[in-house]
Amino acid sequence: MINQLQEKYQLSLLLLLGSVAMFGILPFVAIRYAEGNTSAVIIDIMLILGIVALVGYAYYSKRIRLISAVTALFINVGVVIVVIANGFESFFWVYPVFASTFILIKPIEALCLNIIAGVSLIVLSDIFNTVSLASYVITITMLSMSTFVYASHSAKQFRLLETLNTVDPLTGAFNRRAMNTDIQAALANAERNGTQPLLAILDLDYFKKVNDQYGHGVGDQVLKDFVAITTSHIRNYDRLYRFGGEEFVLLIPGISDDQHTSFIENLRTAIKKELTTPDGKGITVSFGVTPWQPKATIDTWLQRADEALYQAKEQGRDCAVFSNKER
């Protein structure tokens, strides 16, 4: 899946940070302007504009991971500059900035960035003529480590949630929710960039007989074995989804026309050779395959593949039928 859930979550955090930057720093612009501290006003305005610009770019470009990393670096560099320029008046901004870093990038990355920024403050600023260095080191260490533990736990929980949201619990293949998202993205990419994705529906032949003869426990194991065999014979960026029962959908992006037949036939042969019942009887698979056609939708693309699968069944199963019919 293309991590849309994670991207939306990260974007919401960026938007929150942008709002905090706007309403949190802006009052200090007015205060420092009234005090005649022009350099501080300029720095604060640059920080606000920089953060807002990065958040806006992330919103429109959808390059969430990259912009989050740039934003984390920007605010850490910014807080070091502000403390050097303003001294004790801006020192306490270090704490929210260091904590915010952990919501923007991976915990270990945030921890490293905090260490670099923290040491930079010690080396470059004279603030510790006023602030106890020992207190600073202890409090910043406690903050960073506590936030690191929390962020690591949250990242683990998020990965678990994403797995539950996108993976079929029995077979380990992706589920229909992930399939709809990925197919829609593949169609959009094909229309935009002219790529040639391939879609196939795979159906295990006479699977009901396996359940009837050996029991549903064996049937479930056969499905798991099928997924393991199939994923071992496709590329890392190809995706296998459980469509329902013993039917699966295979999405194959970026494959040239002259490779369609050989790719599918090699896969079908590998499954036929390796997938067996407990007593060694081979299990075959029928394929309904269709390349992308301009103006295709999820429904029409799947329908073409399903019609090709029906033809494969009519032709005696254990074969692949390709459909080039446009709709």
Protein model, in words:
The chain folds into 2 domains: 4-166, no CATH class; 176-322, Alpha-Beta Plaits. The chain has 11 helices and 5 strands. It has helices at residues 4-34, 38-61, 64-86, 94-104, 107-124, 133-166, 176-193, 207-214, 216-232, 260-274, 298-314, and strands spanning 198-204, 239-244, 247-252, 285-291, 320-322. A 5-stranded mixed β-sheet has the order 2-3-1-4-5, with helices on both faces. Strand 2 (239-244) and strand 3 form a beta hairpin. The longest helix has 34 residues, at 133-166.
Q: In brief, what are we looking at here?
A:
It catalyses: 2 GTP = 3',3'-c-di-GMP + 2 diphosphate. This is diguanylate cyclase. This protein is α+β, with helices and mostly antiparallel strands.
Features:
single chain; alpha+beta; Alpha-Beta Plaits; 11 helices; 5 strands; elongated; Rev_trsase/Diguanyl_cyclase
Strand order of the largest sheet: 2-3-1-4-5
Q: What is the total number of structural domains? A: 2
End-to-end distance, in Å?
Answer: 27 Å
Alpha carbon gyration radius: 28 Å
**Mean pLDDT, rounded to whole units?**
88
- The amount of helix comes to 55-70%
Number of helices: 11
Number of separate strands: 5
Give the overall shape, derived from the CA principal axes: elongated
What profile does the largest beta sheet have? 5 strands, mixed
Give the ordered list of helices and strands. HHHHHHHEHHEEHEHE
Indicate the proportion of strand residues. Answer: 5-15%
